Amino acid sequence: MKKFPVIFTSDASLSEDVAKEVKAGKARKIGPRLYTTNMKDEPARIVRQNWWQILSLLVPHAVVSHRTALEGAISPMGRAYVTGAYRRIITLPGLEIVQQKGPGPVEGDLPMLELHISSQARACLENLSPSKARKGEAKTLPTEQLERKLADLLRTHGEGGLNALRDRARAIARALELGTECHQLDQLIGTLMGTRSADLGEPLAKAYARQEPYDPSAIERVDALRAALLAQGTPDRSNRAESNEAFYNAAFYDAYFSNYIEGTRFEVEEAYRIIETGRVPVERPEDGHDILGTYRVVGSLEEMTTIPANFADFQTLLKRRHAMILEGRSDKRPGQFKELPNFAGQTRFVDPDLLSGTLKLGYEMCRSLEHPFARGLVMMFLIAEVHPFDDGNGRIARAMMNAELIAGDQVRIFIPSVYRNEYVASLKRLTHHSQPDAFIRVMSYAQDFVSRIDFSVRESANDMLRGCNAFADPADTVKLRLPPAE
Question: 94 and 234: one domain?
């Protein structure tokens, strides 16, 4: 007896064996001439899991085309679009195969199983061709989605990638009888590269046309945080009428803990002497300058009550404060945006050529928020996500956040040493999974913690911090405790 695969088709030579398998309960029919040996899962699930193999079996020699070629997936309406020798529709559980009549494979189309897949150039032309929606869906992508894909190609492969695509499209347009579509594609590509002027509808494509490209993934995460803050509401922890002494004492711990997060670690009293005397340890001059530089920003009433009025002002403040923080590390190019991509573990931050556009759009999102807590968190996450500098990004991100808070008469936020792991984990959850709730919760808890401490006298504030485990190593089993509320 022939052994059948999970998905197979029947013909005259196999019909007897197939009938025996079906009768024995070892196979079942799920579509025209289409059978499966999977007797447990729902037919629609089986079809969707094996749809490429099914296309190869039911429409061999067809070209997977139009939106299916660009998306590489079953469409939202459950369809796969192909081009073949004649028109037909094959309806299966969970999948409708829509075949239109058209040219077979041309140069550049990619073989797969018994099929070909439209090359990127051919698929772009096909998706610009006129198409009427059938039962709520057309075989072509909306123009905005095609613009987005072209913008993504420009982002990942540069102008050379778009020019190569355009050249391939020109070479095959005549054979496909898609000359008009080739002209449209030429206009779109030229507009993205700034050499033509066509109407664009997709935001990322428009940004490229304005020479302000941005990283869409980073912006989506920033927007997820913005939306969550709007939906959840924001805590209002107004600054008490604190004295200047309380401000400066709180700023010391802000600078101390901000550097601890980044691995610059001193005993508390040693760090305080560095700031009080301005003298850095001979054996650790760069680390000492990190503490001093950070304090120069977060311990300045002028800096911490100044927030940007527009994007140009934002860039100026960002660069100036970064230069102050990293004044002792000339090799890190203080105050200058990065020129090469930077990484943290497996995380690749926003590429340098997308840096300005991403910061600009993110800044506009930040400015659209009313409450200082919401603005501060979006500001901090935006800078951390872009990582605009070679080094010092975490410290400048937290400093910019606290300027938003303090200028808005809200309690500043710092992350005690023992709370570092919760803070880092919440950032990673937002960066890798677009889940902002943990980050908002961690930052709110940290602000609540700071709000309960009277910094008027440093020694008593220090005792309270120590009593709440603030200085404990995050690897210890102890947790950060909230001081009693007043």
Answer: no
